TrEMBL record, chains A, B:
Keywords: Lyase. Residues 47-66 are annotated as: Disordered. InterPro entries: ACMSD, Amidohydro-rel, Metal_Hydrolase. Gene3D superfamilies: Metal-dependent hydrolases. It comes from Paenibacillus sabuli. This is Amidohydrolase. Residues 3-348 form the Amidohydrolase-related domain. GO terms for cellular component: cytoplasm. GO terms for molecular function: carboxy-lyase activity; hydrolase activity. It holds the Pfam family Amidohydro_2. One of its GO terms (biological process) is secondary metabolic process.
Length: 361, 361
């Protein structure tokens, strides 16, 4: 006779648990499935707008023709910077696997997307957990005329100002490609640190609120570590982190630098002065003050007419149409944010000469 | 014959290393000594204003008579909330030792400081790594008429919204004591997480810039975890973290809550609406925008006339006199920030009835 003390049984589908779950988890798991162990927080189902699934049932954002119709044509988008959906990759402990994955992403975008519409441009994925390999990827594809940027997931063990990343920055500067930082999965797998300055977030709601803290920390670290003295042409743009924290950060850095400048002796200007030359922010998602004029005041404080660039976050659930910019903005400011700032930053044609979908000017 | 493969030699004083060190470290170590291992970042020598050492050579801030003269009398301070200098204690892994230490701090303040001047009031230290013990300390001394608050170091393994801290919050609410949060030593000893949202700071300069990120994370965590629904009378005040980030945080929380409210179903109001009833900020150190009107706009956005309370940070190096408030502020706002807001918050007499140093009204 035998006693087996360890037999792993399972349920056929998570739905079988539903009768035994109380609300609100019953509804949550019925609608979205179980929370993934790699983040531990609930994300909306794929984070997608319900209406963005292509007619053939393929995933939202996977069909160039459908995106062209639903985004580019509908909203008069002259250029769309494709940024993919692999923000977990820089959290993967195996750098060789991660490097292979981002290269495959990049080649797939070049093969399947760029030929479909001249308005599609792309950000080049890199696995920054291996800076030398990331630099090689930039050298491999950074000269492609439709590659406008290098793309970082924010998920990292080491703050981006550290010299560990210098090989990437050398390559990006050599190819004159700005680096976009997009929220990743802080706290998951490799990812140090936790996603907020106080530790793990409980929910996707709290995590999403906290993205701006990460961008504040990275912006301060990049500037105070002297990255922009080491790489005077290097530029970053911060995606999905909001905007209204930037005046605070600039002013606090300047105030503290005045008393403690011996701790960053390589800086030749006030910390805030590096922002205009090296940092841009994108619009989505925008803060929502109760008084619209407060957002306009923030726009003035951070010089949004130069620093802010429109982004829709299509096909994600919190997509912002171009009309999401605050009313009360001057026509000039609106044009700069919707087009000119990004054209200047990425070296795209000026507004009146933007091509149509066949590439005609 | 013997070969000893491990013999620990040392130098008599760190000064002996100076001839072998290049600048700027030679000067730094000569002036400030070696960086402490518990934080790994340089702090100014004790962080003190050079002129605050009492005439007898004792440490800055250790002599009630000297503080009375240099701070209270000189600046017409009606009440001074003594907050001590033990912000490392909540990072100590031994909770019994930490609890003994904060109790000793509290008893010492009651014995040596409160009898010296009626204007001295105190914040009660607690070792929040042991919530039950911290609650007992609040019950032991929270009824003392000169105890106006409970004092948290920000150094914590767990975000403050977690129910782990509920015993402390029950006790603080029972005694009607608001909780002050002061920067601690994130990244040192017990302290999870690192002091910024991107990981360890390189320098004291970067660490100090990052304090506001921690306060943003804690404020979001307290509100989104529903602490103020569980403890409707509980209040917090955030010390030394700046102010201009609060509008951003309120607006971003509200914007995201509108789409994700099922993740914090216990909230009965918009996240920002909890701020006015439950959160206060102190003034020092203030952000320094190049245009003074920008700070006044921020004051309006966060309702500084109700939420902001003056603090000097005496005797620290970045002390702010009451005159550090921005010019352009109305006399009414100035009075509220310098006195009325704190009087309301801590239950002190209204301005015209504030006592003199002998306690006469």
């Amino acid at each position: 006779m035998i006693i087996d003390c360890d037999v792993h049984h399972t349920r056929k589908h998570v739905r079988e648990l539903l009768p035994y779950l109380p609300e609100p988890w019953k509804t949550e798991i019925a609608k979205y499935g179980e929370r993934k162990m790699n983040a531990g927080i609930l994300q909306q189902e794929g984070g997608m707008r319900w209406d963005t699934q292509p007619p053939d049932g393929s995933p939202p954002g996977s069909d160039p023709a459908h995106m062209r119709e639903q985004l580019l044509d509908r909203y008069n988008i002259a250029y769309a910077l494709l940024s993919g959906s692999g923000h977990h990759i820089t959290a993967i402990p195996d750098p060789d696997y991660a490097t292979a994955l981002v290269s495959a992403w990049n080649d797939h975008t070049i093969a399947h997307w760029l030929p479909q519409d001249r308005r599609f441009k792309m950000s080049l994925w890199v696995a920054h957990q291996d800076p030398a390999a990331a630099a090689r990827e930039i050298d491999r594809l950074g000269g492609h005329p439709d590659v406008l940027a290098v793309w970082f997931s924010s998920t990292t063990r080491i703050p981006f100002g550290h010299r560990w990343f210098d090989p990437i920055y050398e390559a990006a500067q050599r190819h004159n490609l700005p680096i976009g930082i997009h929220p990743g999965q802080g706290g998951a797998m490799l990812a140090q640190p936790a996603p907020t300055a106080a530790g793990m977030a409980r929910s996707y709601l709290e995590w999403h609120v906290g993205v701006s803290q990460l961008y504040m920390a990275q912006t301060a670290n990049l500037i105070l570590e002297g990255v922009f003295e080491r790489f005077p042409q290097l530029r970053f743009f911060l995606v999905e982190g909001g905007i209204a924290w930037l005046p605070h950060l600039m002013w606090r850095m300047d105030a503290h630098f005045k008393g403690l400048r011996q701790q960053a002796p390589w800086l030749k200007r006030l910390p805030s002065e590096y922002v205009a030359d090296h940092i841009r922010l994108t619009t989505q998602p925008m803060e929502e003050p109760r008084q619209a004029r407060h957002l306009l005041q923030i726009f003035e404080m951070l010089d949004a007419e130069r620093l802010l660039m429109y982004a829709s976050d299509y096909p994600h659930w919190d997509f912002d149409a171009p009309t999401a910019l605050p009313s009360g903005l001057s026509a000039h400011a609106r044009e700069r944010i919707l087009y000119d700032n990004a054209a200047d930053f990425f070296g795209l044609p000026a507004r009146l000469r933007a091509p149509d979908r066949e590439g005609r000017v």
